[in-house]
């Protein structure tokens, strides 16, 4: 991101990092942290629960980091490809990555809702461009995940701007969000308030 050649990503918000969190830490420390988060999540969810874990694959020191060191010991049932429009890569050593992966890490009794299976494992969603958070998910992507399961409570331990909360509200599910940055918590709360106010306006106008 700090390559400096610019192009259309020269002002990308992520160049400046997150507001209260710096993920620039030694690789092993970072993997260990992510592994411990996932293990705790697995402990918390019921026997029919699942984790949808998105983590970019990146080339570091010339080698692909496919995140096996993070997810390798977990019960991965499937890898879903999230096909984006374009991406960021200033490196002439490899092709521009245009997809990200979502690991479906599932407990024994996890099942999709009827018909969700037919959606396949390559999902095409444009990245979110109208959100001031540096790395937001598109609502449509989270909506796809939530509507594919009957989970009544959705936990997002890295809530950012509240995308998971919005998708959960859209589907009358409960949500729990955890977020380190007070700025992003404020962003998420504002978004949730707006969404709920809009619902009220629609209800009154019916
Ligand atoms: C990829 S972003 C999530 C964006 C979110 N999905 C959205 O649509 O806005 C990751 C988030 O994790 C937050 N974060 C980093 N470390 C954290 C921690 N230890 N606990 C809670 N949140 C953390 C960052 O502040 C950042 O907002």
How is this structure best summarized?
This protein has 206 residues and is of the alpha/beta class. The protein is built from five helices and eight strands, in the order H-E-E-E-H-E-E-E-H-E-H-E-H.
Task: Name a few traits of the molecule.
206 residues; alpha/beta; Rossmann fold; four-stranded mixed β-sheet; two-stranded antiparallel ribbon; 5 helices; 30% helix; binds S-adenosylmethionine
What does this molecule look like?
This protein is of the alpha/beta class and 206 residues long. The protein has a single domain, classed as Rossmann fold, CATH 3.40.50.150. 30% of the residues lie in helices and 18% in strands. The chain is built from 5 helices and 8 strands. It has helices at 27-44, 68-71, 139-147, 163-170, 182-204; strands at 50-54, 58-60, 63-65, 76-83, 99-106, 122-124, 153-156, 174-177. The strands form 3 sheets. It has a 4-stranded mixed β-sheet with strand order 1-5-4-6, with helices on one face. A two-stranded antiparallel sheet has the order 2-3. The chain is globular. Mean pLDDT is 90; it is low at 1-6. The protein binds S-adenosylmethionine (SAM).
Give the strand content.
15-25%
How many domains make up the 3D coordinates?
1
The CATH H-level superfamily is Vaccinia Virus protein VP39
Total helical elements: 5
* Helix residue percentage: 25-40%
- Gyration radius (Cα, Å) is 18 Å
User: Which structural class do the helices and strands define?
Assistant: alpha/beta
Largest sheet: 4 strands, mixed
H/E element order: HEEEHEEEHEHEH
The beta-strand count equals: 8
